[in-house]
Amino acid sequence: MEERLEKADFNYNEEVVEKVLKNCFKYPHLALRFFNWVKLSKGFRHTTNTFTMMINVAGEAKELSLVEDLAEEMVRSSCNMNVKTWTILLSHYGKSRLISKSLLVFENMRKSGVEPDAIAYKIMLGALCNGGRSDLALEFYKDMVHNEVNLDLGLCKQLLKCFALSGDVTSVYLVGENMKKNSEISEPQIYHLMLKSFCIAGRIRESLELIRDLKNKNVILDAGIFETLVKGLCSKDRITDAMEILEIMKKKNVFDENIYRILISTYLRRNEVAEALSLFEEAKKYGNISVSTYTNLMQHLFWKNEFQKGLELYDEMLEMGLELDCVAITAAAVGYVRKNCISEAWEVFMSMDEKGIKPTSKSYTIFINELCKVCSTDEIIKTLNEMKVRKVNIQDDIFRHVRSHLKKKGETEKLDGVLIDGQCSQPKSVGKSEPDRIVQERLSKYSAGPARFDGNSDMQEIRQILSGSFDWCFIQEKLEKLNFQFSPDLVVEILRSSALNITNALKFFSWVGAKTGYNHNEQSYNMALKISGQGKNFKEMRNLFHEMRRKGCLITPDTWTIMIMQYGRTGLTDIALEIFGEMKISGCKPDKSTYTYLITSLCGKKGRKTDEAIRLYQEMLRVGFAPDKELVETYVGCLCEVNKLSDAKNCIDSLRKFGFSIPLSYSLYFRALCRAEKLEHALALMDKIGSEKNLLDQYTYGSLIHCLLRRGRLEDALAKIKCMEKQGVHPTVHVYTSLIIYFLKEKEINRALETLEEMKKRGCQPTIVTYSALICGYVRLGKITEAWDVFGNIKKNGPLPDFKTYSMFVDCLCRVGKSEEASRLISEMLHDGIIPSTINFRNIIYGLNREGKPDLARVVLKKKLDIKSRRKM
């Protein structure tokens, strides 16, 4: 392309280059190549406009590091940024929720002498609202009001929601008052928006106070206001309060079908069908009820096997002359199927024709699913033919479901009638037509030769077979009956889903490998290697590797890397290094992943070999592989822990050539020093950094706070937090969590909870680390019930507990003599797909024996051995 451009001898000017870049938003890599190429063209020099356009292209591609590089190059090229450039920078940082960056850009914009315009203010305010920074959003909002910058309706809604979520009620009212002065929106609509923001934020008390305030001001409350409030109350499951709102409306003689619909749906969601029906009867006295409400009630009655009541509702809709839709008719047909009245079901289903409604593919799917439940094979075939006649798209999942159902009944041959000539009986109202060729082809694949693997349902069947018994002969017998045509890709998926049943998974691997017409490939072997290593079946792993070689499978760097990773993760780094040497001797070149996994293992606590890690890291750079951020963190962290600070510093100094910025590079070093308890070295580094100190301060102060608190220097930590807040940098989740951990350690539970509340108010969402610390803090203080409450809450609402959370909880409970409660967590871990460690079991078993519960200890030991047997050959 460059050659063609050079030969074309075009005359490049600012306008042409800007237009070319503007047309490259979908191809940012080409835009950058053209941008870099054209600046070498004779007589051309990039301008503010061309730089701005390239920055915009990079930002849209979310290449923020490139955005920074372009901005720096722009300054070096003496191209002044105009208001458009600054606004584009604000927009892209804002979209990425990089609030600190956005604030810095906004400040630099002012310092450069460019006054932010209305667009810049609006972008900045939107970013702060999206980032949950209500305190800063308020400052910007006041500034905008002072400068008479008008806000559009969308931004006003964002502000109201942001302030409501943060609990800043005063600011919600402030925005409302300003909207009344400066907006063309009517006053009731403004109150409606305020109420909606409170409801979205779940602030019911504030919502009710606003309603009372409006009543005192004699503001007329329309049905929309009440509907919003009822929605909010129902979303928080406050159905009693919502019903009180309904009573108020009844006194005012105001009927709103939407409110009844919301209330009825809420009762049904709570499975309180009787209450929903009572409200439904009441609603009918006031006016017409929508078809969707009838349908919702009808479906719930069918689920409770109250077919007669459900069908009476359908008849009532017909009598009232309501305009039924496809969903309502399908629901009624399903009711008749469940009642085993198949002819009546067909009559209702086919009544769609009379009403001019075309049944959808989804309607047919629901109908067929219900027919499968009552084992009505002929009717299923009839429905498939009906779909062919009507040329309704028949989804693959329908065929899979039908085939699976017929296979269990031993009636798969009945599909032939659909496949060949559609000779199964048709509904009377429908004539025959030539079956659709594509549908025939799609169906024919199920009738010829061995059955193909049918996705989720059959995958689930195989999983159940492999996990349902320890008797391999019994399992093999069931597998032989399946008559599936396996492929290596499907074998990989089956092995991947067998983390708790490694024994059966590997036996399955051998069994399927011996089947006629099947051969394992490198991917299936690699997965078998991986799961055998995960179960520490290293002998089996090596046997599989040698078998792979004997059968002539391609041995790729991935294969070697899997073995290196499996030995390395268990601390067997000597063997991992031996395999690395074997890999090189075999002529297979290590790739980036090989180096990364091996160096990571060598830097770990188990099997640490720092000198080897240094040698391999330098070798990795020599052969041309650039390290990623995670590897640098691990590597430099290890070097700092073992006092090899000069090697750590050399690593950091070399990162610039791999695209790491100076602040990022030094922040990695600073954090590593803090984690290694080398606070003085970290502070000395900060003093040396020079012009980048402020930016580095923002990157690293979370690590500094954590380190100060670990040393018990609370006052110094709080002083640093205040100092950073003055610079516009607010505490991060890392900082808040460190404070919570410190207060819990000092048994100051109230201060810890106050910090958690402050954190939430500022829109800083707690992580699983925060909640894990709180759980363990409660346990150490003897507040076991509160710890379980927190655990139950995160299980229900997130963030979900991970292996570390479970392990910490187990350890803490065992330490305070609650090992029986800790044993409950083993089942929870397995349910969540997390495999308990040997240490988890050891802590519980030791604890139970200490507490005089040997019988329960034996039960836990049996569970441990059961899991071990599933994961070992």
TrEMBL record:
NCBIfam families, per the entry: PPR (TIGR00756)
Keywords assigned by UniProt, alphabetized: Repeat
Family designation: Belongs to the PPR family. P subfamily.
Superkingdom of this protein's organism: Eukaryota
Name of the molecule in the record: Pentatricopeptide repeat-containing protein-mitochondrial domain-containing protein
PPR repeat locations: 82-116, 117-151, 187-221, 222-256, 290-324, 325-359, 521-555, 556-590, 591-627, 697-731, 732-766, 767-801, 802-836
Lineage per the UniProt record: Eukaryota, Viridiplantae, Streptophyta, Embryophyta, Tracheophyta
Keyword Repeat on entry: yes
InterPro entries, A to Z: PPR_rpt, TPR-like_helical_dom_sf, TPR_mt
Residues covered by the Pentatricopeptide repeat-containing protein-mitochondrial domain: 154-282
SUPFAM superfamilies recorded: HCP-like, TPR-like
Gene3D superfamilies per UniProt: Tetratricopeptide repeat domain
Keyword Disulfide bond: no
